[in-house]
Amino acid sequence: MEHQNIYKKSSRKDASNLRFAIAKDAKLLSVILPLYIQDSYNFEYNISCKTRIYRTGTLRLCALARGIFVFGFFFFLLAGCTSLIQKGGEVLEGSAFAANPTALYSSDGIELKEMPGKDGENFIEITNSQWPGLVLRGSAPASDGSFQLTEASILSPHVSGWNELNYELLGSGNFFSLSEREAGSVLRVDEAPELVQVSSGKIRLKSRRLTGNTALAALRNRRERILSLTEWMGEWQEKTGNSNYFENQKEFDEYWKSLLFPELVSEKKRPQNYSTINANAGDAEWNRADGVKWNLTYTKSIFPEALWEFRDSGALLRDWEEALPWIFMEYSWASIISTFNNKTLQKIK
Prior knowledge:
- With 349 residues, this protein is an alpha+beta fold.
- The chain has helices at 12-19, 26-38, 56-78, 84-93, 212-240, 249-260, 272-279, 296-302, 308-312, 315-331, 333-338, and strands at 8-9, 103-107, 110-115, 123-128, 134-139, 146-158, 161-177, 185-189, 194-205, 208-210, 286-289, 292-295, 343-347.
- Strand 5 and strand 6 (146-158) form a beta hairpin.
Protein backbone atom coordinates (compact mmCIF):
# COMPACT_ATOMS: atom_id res chain seq x y z
CA MET A 1 0.00 0.00 0.00
CA GLU A 2 1.06 3.54 -0.79
CA HIS A 3 1.08 4.74 2.76
CA GLN A 4 2.97 1.86 4.36
CA ASN A 5 6.45 2.18 5.85
CA ILE A 6 6.89 5.79 4.82
CA TYR A 7 5.62 7.69 7.81
CA LYS A 8 7.50 8.89 10.85
CA LYS A 9 6.10 8.93 14.35
CA SER A 10 4.90 12.26 15.67
CA SER A 11 6.81 13.70 18.56
CA ARG A 12 5.36 13.61 22.04
CA LYS A 13 5.17 17.39 21.91
CA ASP A 14 3.05 17.36 18.74
CA ALA A 15 0.70 14.80 20.27
CA SER A 16 0.37 16.87 23.43
CA ASN A 17 -0.39 20.05 21.46
CA LEU A 18 -2.98 18.25 19.38
CA ARG A 19 -4.73 16.75 22.39
CA PHE A 20 -5.42 20.12 23.94
CA ALA A 21 -6.51 21.89 20.70
CA ILE A 22 -9.97 23.46 20.88
CA ALA A 23 -12.96 22.23 18.82
CA LYS A 24 -16.15 23.91 17.72
CA ASP A 25 -17.85 21.21 15.69
CA ALA A 26 -19.02 17.95 17.24
CA LYS A 27 -19.01 16.22 13.86
CA LEU A 28 -15.34 16.97 13.38
CA LEU A 29 -14.65 15.78 16.91
CA SER A 30 -15.85 12.33 15.87
CA VAL A 31 -13.20 12.40 13.14
CA ILE A 32 -10.29 13.60 15.25
CA LEU A 33 -11.05 11.75 18.49
CA PRO A 34 -9.53 8.44 17.30
CA LEU A 35 -6.31 10.34 16.54
CA TYR A 36 -6.40 11.94 19.95
CA ILE A 37 -6.62 8.51 21.57
CA GLN A 38 -4.03 6.94 19.25
CA ASP A 39 -1.48 9.68 19.94
CA SER A 40 -1.89 9.86 23.66
CA TYR A 41 1.09 7.56 24.40
CA ASN A 42 -0.76 5.64 27.09
CA PHE A 43 -2.08 8.87 28.54
CA GLU A 44 -4.87 7.91 30.91
CA TYR A 45 -7.22 9.82 33.08
CA ASN A 46 -8.42 8.30 36.33
CA ILE A 47 -10.36 9.87 39.11
CA SER A 48 -10.13 7.93 42.30
CA CYS A 49 -12.04 8.77 45.40
CA LYS A 50 -9.44 8.28 48.09
CA THR A 51 -11.82 9.18 50.86
CA ARG A 52 -12.97 6.05 52.63
CA ILE A 53 -16.56 5.33 51.60
CA TYR A 54 -18.90 4.45 54.39
CA ARG A 55 -22.27 4.72 52.67
CA THR A 56 -23.65 4.03 49.22
CA GLY A 57 -24.65 7.69 49.00
CA THR A 58 -21.01 8.74 49.20
CA LEU A 59 -20.15 6.36 46.36
CA ARG A 60 -22.89 7.89 44.22
CA LEU A 61 -21.58 11.40 44.89
CA CYS A 62 -18.12 10.27 43.87
CA ALA A 63 -19.45 8.79 40.62
CA LEU A 64 -21.43 11.95 39.97
CA ALA A 65 -18.34 14.12 40.46
CA ARG A 66 -16.42 11.90 38.07
CA GLY A 67 -19.16 12.21 35.44
CA ILE A 68 -19.33 16.01 35.79
CA PHE A 69 -15.59 16.32 35.32
CA VAL A 70 -15.54 14.15 32.19
CA PHE A 71 -18.57 15.98 30.77
CA GLY A 72 -16.86 19.30 31.44
CA PHE A 73 -13.70 18.11 29.70
CA PHE A 74 -15.55 17.24 26.49
CA PHE A 75 -17.69 20.39 26.68
CA PHE A 76 -14.45 22.37 26.74
CA LEU A 77 -13.36 20.55 23.56
CA LEU A 78 -16.63 21.40 21.82
CA ALA A 79 -16.88 25.02 22.99
CA GLY A 80 -13.93 26.53 21.09
CA CYS A 81 -14.06 28.81 18.10
CA THR A 82 -12.08 26.70 15.62
CA SER A 83 -12.69 23.14 14.48
CA LEU A 84 -10.43 20.59 16.13
CA ILE A 85 -9.45 19.14 12.78
CA GLN A 86 -8.23 22.49 11.49
CA LYS A 87 -6.74 23.48 14.84
CA GLY A 88 -4.86 20.18 14.95
CA GLY A 89 -3.27 20.87 11.60
CA GLU A 90 -2.47 24.45 12.61
CA VAL A 91 -0.84 23.36 15.85
CA LEU A 92 1.34 20.85 14.05
CA GLU A 93 2.57 23.43 11.54
CA GLY A 94 2.70 26.35 13.96
CA SER A 95 0.15 28.55 12.19
CA ALA A 96 -2.23 28.27 15.17
CA PHE A 97 -0.16 30.99 16.79
CA ALA A 98 -0.27 33.41 13.82
CA ALA A 99 -0.86 37.13 14.31
CA ASN A 100 -4.36 38.57 14.60
CA PRO A 101 -5.92 40.21 11.52
CA THR A 102 -5.49 43.95 11.09
CA ALA A 103 -8.93 44.11 9.43
CA LEU A 104 -11.89 41.74 9.23
CA TYR A 105 -14.90 41.78 6.90
CA SER A 106 -17.69 39.22 7.13
CA SER A 107 -21.19 38.31 5.94
CA ASP A 108 -23.18 35.08 5.51
CA GLY A 109 -20.28 32.83 6.44
CA ILE A 110 -17.77 34.52 4.11
CA GLU A 111 -14.80 36.27 5.70
CA LEU A 112 -12.00 38.40 4.34
CA LYS A 113 -9.11 39.05 6.72
CA GLU A 114 -6.20 41.36 6.17
CA MET A 115 -3.18 39.85 7.90
CA PRO A 116 0.26 41.24 8.73
CA GLY A 117 3.02 39.48 6.78
CA LYS A 118 6.41 38.52 8.16
CA ASP A 119 8.06 40.65 5.48
CA GLY A 120 6.05 43.71 6.47
CA GLU A 121 3.64 43.35 3.54
CA ASN A 122 0.02 42.66 4.45
CA PHE A 123 -1.93 39.90 2.71
CA ILE A 124 -5.55 38.70 2.67
CA GLU A 125 -7.21 35.42 3.60
CA ILE A 126 -10.66 34.56 2.23
CA THR A 127 -12.79 31.75 3.69
CA ASN A 128 -16.33 30.41 3.39
CA SER A 129 -18.00 28.44 6.20
CA GLN A 130 -19.57 26.15 3.58
CA TRP A 131 -16.03 24.98 2.74
CA PRO A 132 -14.32 24.90 6.17
CA GLY A 133 -11.11 23.27 4.94
CA LEU A 134 -10.32 25.90 2.29
CA VAL A 135 -8.38 29.18 2.62
CA LEU A 136 -7.56 31.49 -0.31
CA ARG A 137 -4.64 33.90 0.13
CA GLY A 138 -3.46 36.86 -1.89
CA SER A 139 -1.98 40.33 -1.90
CA ALA A 140 -3.59 43.15 0.07
CA PRO A 141 -5.99 45.18 -2.11
CA ALA A 142 -4.38 48.08 -3.98
CA SER A 143 -5.86 51.60 -3.96
CA ASP A 144 -8.30 50.57 -6.72
CA GLY A 145 -9.34 47.46 -4.76
CA SER A 146 -7.60 44.95 -7.04
CA PHE A 147 -5.66 42.02 -5.58
CA GLN A 148 -3.84 38.91 -6.78
CA LEU A 149 -4.60 35.42 -5.49
CA THR A 150 -1.40 33.46 -4.93
CA GLU A 151 -2.15 30.47 -2.68
CA ALA A 152 -4.92 28.06 -1.73
CA SER A 153 -4.68 25.88 1.38
CA ILE A 154 -6.77 22.74 1.78
CA LEU A 155 -7.25 20.63 4.89
CA SER A 156 -8.93 17.36 3.92
CA PRO A 157 -9.77 15.18 6.97
CA HIS A 158 -10.73 11.52 7.07
CA VAL A 159 -11.37 9.00 9.84
CA SER A 160 -7.69 8.19 10.32
CA GLY A 161 -6.01 11.54 9.69
CA TRP A 162 -5.87 14.25 7.07
CA ASN A 163 -4.17 15.66 3.98
CA GLU A 164 -2.85 19.20 4.47
CA LEU A 165 -1.67 20.95 1.31
CA ASN A 166 -0.92 24.31 -0.27
CA TYR A 167 -1.46 25.10 -3.94
CA GLU A 168 0.18 27.75 -6.03
CA LEU A 169 -2.75 29.83 -7.25
CA LEU A 170 -3.11 32.11 -10.27
CA GLY A 171 -6.05 34.48 -10.10
CA SER A 172 -7.22 37.98 -9.31
CA GLY A 173 -10.11 39.81 -7.76
CA ASN A 174 -11.43 43.10 -6.48
CA PHE A 175 -12.56 44.36 -3.11
CA PHE A 176 -14.02 47.84 -3.10
CA SER A 177 -16.12 50.00 -0.80
CA LEU A 178 -19.66 50.97 -1.70
CA SER A 179 -20.89 54.55 -1.77
CA GLU A 180 -21.52 56.48 1.42
CA ARG A 181 -25.21 55.65 1.13
CA GLU A 182 -24.52 51.95 1.12
CA ALA A 183 -22.65 50.11 3.86
CA GLY A 184 -20.07 47.44 3.25
CA SER A 185 -17.55 46.41 0.63
CA VAL A 186 -18.05 44.13 -2.37
CA LEU A 187 -15.85 41.09 -3.02
CA ARG A 188 -15.36 39.82 -6.55
CA VAL A 189 -13.12 37.06 -7.91
CA ASP A 190 -12.29 37.04 -11.62
CA GLU A 191 -13.43 33.67 -13.00
CA ALA A 192 -11.99 30.56 -11.34
CA PRO A 193 -8.34 30.96 -10.27
CA GLU A 194 -6.07 28.22 -11.57
CA LEU A 195 -4.81 25.64 -9.10
CA VAL A 196 -1.32 25.31 -10.55
CA GLN A 197 0.32 22.60 -8.46
CA VAL A 198 0.81 21.45 -4.88
CA SER A 199 3.73 23.44 -3.46
CA SER A 200 3.91 21.97 0.06
CA GLY A 201 1.97 19.85 2.49
CA LYS A 202 1.76 17.15 5.15
CA ILE A 203 -0.05 13.86 5.45
CA ARG A 204 -1.36 12.40 8.67
CA LEU A 205 -2.41 8.76 9.00
CA LYS A 206 -3.25 7.65 12.52
CA SER A 207 -0.16 8.41 14.65
CA ARG A 208 2.20 8.83 11.71
CA ARG A 209 3.02 11.81 9.52
CA LEU A 210 4.64 12.51 6.19
CA THR A 211 6.43 15.85 5.82
CA GLY A 212 8.85 17.59 3.50
CA ASN A 213 9.66 16.21 0.05
CA THR A 214 8.19 12.80 0.86
CA ALA A 215 4.79 14.34 1.61
CA LEU A 216 5.06 16.65 -1.39
CA ALA A 217 5.69 13.75 -3.78
CA ALA A 218 2.81 11.71 -2.32
CA LEU A 219 0.40 14.66 -2.49
CA ARG A 220 1.35 15.52 -6.07
CA ASN A 221 0.85 11.91 -7.14
CA ARG A 222 -2.52 11.79 -5.44
CA ARG A 223 -3.52 15.06 -7.06
CA GLU A 224 -2.72 13.65 -10.52
CA ARG A 225 -5.06 10.74 -9.81
CA ILE A 226 -7.74 13.08 -8.48
CA LEU A 227 -7.52 15.26 -11.61
CA SER A 228 -7.92 12.20 -13.84
CA LEU A 229 -10.94 11.11 -11.81
CA THR A 230 -12.70 14.49 -11.69
CA GLU A 231 -12.11 15.06 -15.40
CA TRP A 232 -13.85 11.76 -16.15
CA MET A 233 -16.66 12.64 -13.72
CA GLY A 234 -17.36 15.86 -15.62
CA GLU A 235 -17.37 13.99 -18.94
CA TRP A 236 -19.67 11.31 -17.53
CA GLN A 237 -22.18 13.86 -16.28
CA GLU A 238 -22.19 15.61 -19.63
CA LYS A 239 -22.58 12.28 -21.45
CA THR A 240 -25.49 11.19 -19.26
CA GLY A 241 -27.13 14.62 -19.19
CA ASN A 242 -26.89 14.98 -15.40
CA SER A 243 -26.02 18.08 -13.42
CA ASN A 244 -22.46 18.69 -12.25
CA TYR A 245 -23.71 20.44 -9.11
CA PHE A 246 -23.92 18.76 -5.71
CA GLU A 247 -25.30 20.51 -2.64
CA ASN A 248 -22.82 18.98 -0.22
CA GLN A 249 -20.18 16.29 0.23
CA LYS A 250 -22.69 13.70 1.46
CA GLU A 251 -24.77 14.05 -1.70
CA PHE A 252 -21.60 13.87 -3.81
CA ASP A 253 -20.44 10.72 -2.01
CA GLU A 254 -23.77 8.92 -2.26
CA TYR A 255 -24.14 9.69 -5.97
CA TRP A 256 -20.69 8.58 -7.09
CA LYS A 257 -19.97 5.72 -4.70
CA SER A 258 -22.42 3.30 -6.34
CA LEU A 259 -20.91 4.03 -9.76
CA LEU A 260 -17.27 3.93 -8.69
CA PHE A 261 -17.51 1.02 -6.26
CA PRO A 262 -20.62 -1.10 -7.05
CA GLU A 263 -18.87 -4.07 -5.44
CA LEU A 264 -19.21 -2.30 -2.07
CA VAL A 265 -22.85 -1.18 -2.15
CA SER A 266 -26.10 -3.08 -1.83
CA GLU A 267 -27.54 -4.70 -4.93
CA LYS A 268 -30.39 -2.15 -5.07
CA LYS A 269 -27.91 0.73 -5.38
CA ARG A 270 -25.77 -0.82 -8.10
CA PRO A 271 -25.98 0.66 -11.61
CA GLN A 272 -27.87 -1.39 -14.18
CA ASN A 273 -24.86 -2.08 -16.36
CA TYR A 274 -22.98 -3.56 -13.38
CA SER A 275 -25.91 -5.83 -12.55
CA THR A 276 -25.98 -7.05 -16.14
CA ILE A 277 -22.25 -7.78 -16.16
CA ASN A 278 -22.36 -9.40 -12.73
CA ALA A 279 -25.20 -11.67 -13.83
CA ASN A 280 -22.81 -13.18 -16.35
CA ALA A 281 -20.09 -13.65 -13.74
CA GLY A 282 -18.71 -16.63 -15.57
CA ASP A 283 -17.64 -14.37 -18.41
CA ALA A 284 -16.39 -11.52 -16.20
CA GLU A 285 -12.77 -10.97 -15.18
CA TRP A 286 -11.96 -10.36 -11.51
CA ASN A 287 -9.04 -9.12 -9.45
CA ARG A 288 -8.68 -9.13 -5.67
CA ALA A 289 -6.86 -6.13 -4.20
CA ASP A 290 -6.95 -4.65 -0.68
CA GLY A 291 -9.51 -7.24 0.37
CA VAL A 292 -11.99 -6.38 -2.41
CA LYS A 293 -12.84 -8.51 -5.45
CA TRP A 294 -12.97 -5.99 -8.32
CA ASN A 295 -14.96 -6.65 -11.47
CA LEU A 296 -12.47 -5.87 -14.26
CA THR A 297 -15.09 -6.28 -16.97
CA TYR A 298 -17.21 -3.55 -15.38
CA THR A 299 -14.14 -1.31 -15.09
CA LYS A 300 -13.45 -1.56 -18.82
CA SER A 301 -17.10 -0.94 -19.69
CA ILE A 302 -17.35 2.32 -17.72
CA PHE A 303 -13.95 3.95 -17.24
CA PRO A 304 -11.35 5.18 -19.71
CA GLU A 305 -8.21 3.09 -19.94
CA ALA A 306 -6.23 5.63 -17.90
CA LEU A 307 -8.36 4.74 -14.86
CA TRP A 308 -8.43 0.94 -15.20
CA GLU A 309 -5.41 0.18 -13.03
CA PHE A 310 -6.36 2.99 -10.65
CA ARG A 311 -9.68 1.29 -9.83
CA ASP A 312 -8.69 -2.37 -10.14
CA SER A 313 -5.70 -2.00 -7.79
CA GLY A 314 -7.80 -0.47 -5.00
CA ALA A 315 -5.97 2.89 -5.25
CA LEU A 316 -9.17 4.69 -6.22
CA LEU A 317 -10.92 3.38 -3.12
CA ARG A 318 -8.01 4.44 -0.89
CA ASP A 319 -8.07 7.94 -2.37
CA TRP A 320 -11.84 8.10 -1.90
CA GLU A 321 -11.59 7.07 1.74
CA GLU A 322 -8.55 9.23 2.57
CA ALA A 323 -9.19 12.35 0.43
CA LEU A 324 -12.94 12.71 -0.20
CA PRO A 325 -13.16 16.41 0.85
CA TRP A 326 -10.18 17.17 -1.39
CA ILE A 327 -11.78 15.33 -4.33
CA PHE A 328 -15.04 17.19 -3.76
CA MET A 329 -13.24 20.55 -3.73
CA GLU A 330 -11.35 19.77 -6.95
CA TYR A 331 -14.57 18.66 -8.61
CA SER A 332 -16.54 21.71 -7.36
CA TRP A 333 -13.81 24.33 -7.82
CA ALA A 334 -15.77 26.60 -10.18
CA SER A 335 -18.85 26.40 -7.93
CA ILE A 336 -16.74 27.22 -4.86
CA ILE A 337 -15.30 30.35 -6.45
CA SER A 338 -18.76 31.53 -7.52
CA THR A 339 -19.78 31.66 -3.84
CA PHE A 340 -17.25 34.49 -3.31
CA ASN A 341 -18.51 36.66 -6.15
CA ASN A 342 -20.47 39.87 -5.67
CA LYS A 343 -20.71 39.41 -1.92
CA THR A 344 -21.21 42.50 0.22
CA LEU A 345 -19.17 42.18 3.41
CA GLN A 346 -19.49 44.28 6.52
CA LYS A 347 -16.44 45.53 8.37
CA ILE A 348 -16.16 43.84 11.77
CA LYS A 349 -12.72 45.08 12.75
